[in-house]
Amino acid sequence: MRPIKVAILGFGTVGSGVYELIETKQDLLEQLLGGPVRVDAVLVKDVGKSRTIHDDVLVTDDFSEILRLPELDVVIEAIVNVEPGYTYLRRAIEAGLYVVTANKELFANKGFELRQLAEKRGVKVCFEATVAGGVPIIGALKQLLRFNQVVKVEAILNGTMNYILTKMREDQVSLEEALLQAQRLGYAEADPANDVEGFDVLFKVVILLELLTGRKIDWDLVRCSGISDITPADISQASVRGERIKHVGSLVVDDQGQVEAEVRPVSVGESHKLYAIEGVDNAIVVTGDLTGDLVFQGPGAGKYPTASIMIEDLVSIFQSIKKAAVSR
């Protein structure tokens, strides 16, 4: 079997993690796929910056160069913002390439269109890493959708906010102080607006809604608020009641496929399944009409958890191709 040839778009925390795991886990990948996986190209902003990448890998800031590579199989995208990622992925799909992405803002805005285009072109777009980092909730929901109806989801989907709320309660500090600590530890960006104002969770809820309903979602359906107005007094009052404030994305789907969704801070009691979720962890409570409540918990971000989930998508794509070839 010839190598599976990969291009990585972006070489930040997640993109470099994907590269490292492909390089260090070749034996396992060959066992899973029957042949090697090879990184042929990496797309970066600054080609002059020093990076630990093999000399035979194309390092470029021009996506057209990547599309001209012979026998390229898949593009793994780990950059931020809707553009230029959307243009890159659209061009990749039109060229018949498979796509794996971790870009939640891009996928919330353009994922429905990309999935439709991929179906027309006979390729796949995999997006497990867009919602909960190292927690494979997309795959779990796809399994449930085969027979169960998912009627409700409640989730902590932003580790930064969960960390801030945890520190505010444990250390009795202001949101600003907890945010600074999160930034020092690398949990929060220099500009934390997407996290603190709830937009990051909004992106993820939209992705889940489109998966569950199979249609393009009007963002106006999702009420959204963040944690910027939460004070130490709010945290203290919740504690007196035996509760904890969590930032929760929730959605309900009825029998006709109608949805209600919101993103907001919620005060939950000890019996609530999200009560004990602390620090940077994510957790998703999925209620199926037949299964009842299922809880998925784990790291919502981080170099290797997120990168490993992207490689799981890669493995899934090419195992399914191999299976289809054998069955013919």
From TrEMBL:
SUPFAM superfamilies: Glyceraldehyde-3-phosphate dehydrogenase-like, C-terminal domain (SSF55347), NAD(P)-binding Rossmann-fold domains (SSF51735). InterPro entries: Asp/hSer_DH_NAD-bd (IPR005106), HDH_cat (IPR001342), HDH_CS (IPR019811), HDH_short (IPR022697), NAD(P)-bd_dom_sf (IPR036291). Its EC number is 1.1.1.3. Keywords: Amino-acid biosynthesis, Methionine biosynthesis, NADP, Oxidoreductase, Threonine biosynthesis. The keyword Oxidoreductase applies. It comes from the Bacteria. It catalyses: L-homoserine + NADP(+) = L-aspartate 4-semialdehyde + NADPH + H(+). Pathway: Amino-acid biosynthesis; L-methionine biosynthesis via de novo pathway; L-homoserine from L-aspartate: step 3/3; Amino-acid biosynthesis; L-threonine biosynthesis; L-threonine from L-aspartate: step 3/5. Residues 136-315 form the Homoserine dehydrogenase catalytic domain. PROSITE patterns: HOMOSER_DHGENASE. Residues 10-128 form the Aspartate/homoserine dehydrogenase NAD-binding domain. Belongs to the homoserine dehydrogenase family. PANTHER family: HOMOSERINE DEHYDROGENASE (PTHR43331). This is Homoserine dehydrogenase. It comes from Piscibacillus salipiscarius. The lineage of its organism: Bacteria, Bacillati, Bacillota, Bacilli, Bacillales.
